[in-house]
Amino acid sequence: MDIFLVEDDAIYSEFIRKALTKNSDYQVKPFFSAEDALQTINGKLPDVVIVDYKLPGLSGIEFYEKIKSRVTASNKVIMLSALDDGNMVLSFIQKGVRDYVIKDENVVESLQAIISGNDESYF
User: Fold this and answer.
1) What is the total count of domains within the chain?
2) Is the N or C terminus of the chain more exposed, i.e. has fewer CB atoms within 10 Å?
3) Can you give the pTM of this predicted structure?
4) Across the chain, what does the average pLDDT equal?
């Protein structure tokens, strides 16, 4: 499973990448900006895109708006944020983002549940 991780914090990105790649089925490619990820996508989305909401340059939601037309039922886009803000989550949902994970002590487990499709029983 190809996973793009768009996270500008290099240490946090490496933490998430290492945790997810413990599953040998997951190939995680890190990006430190939405612009870099967009250049690599070139028309075909990976299976999963994990994108931080707050990025330098294009924000996570602006990035989502640019790829939204290419997202199919076989792709997952997961928005990450350090903020637990109900209004922000509602705005994500209104824009079409289906999955949202808060950067807390359960971030890895939450991401794994969504990626594996077990999020219904996890949350």
Assistant:
1) 1
2) C
3) 0.90
4) 89
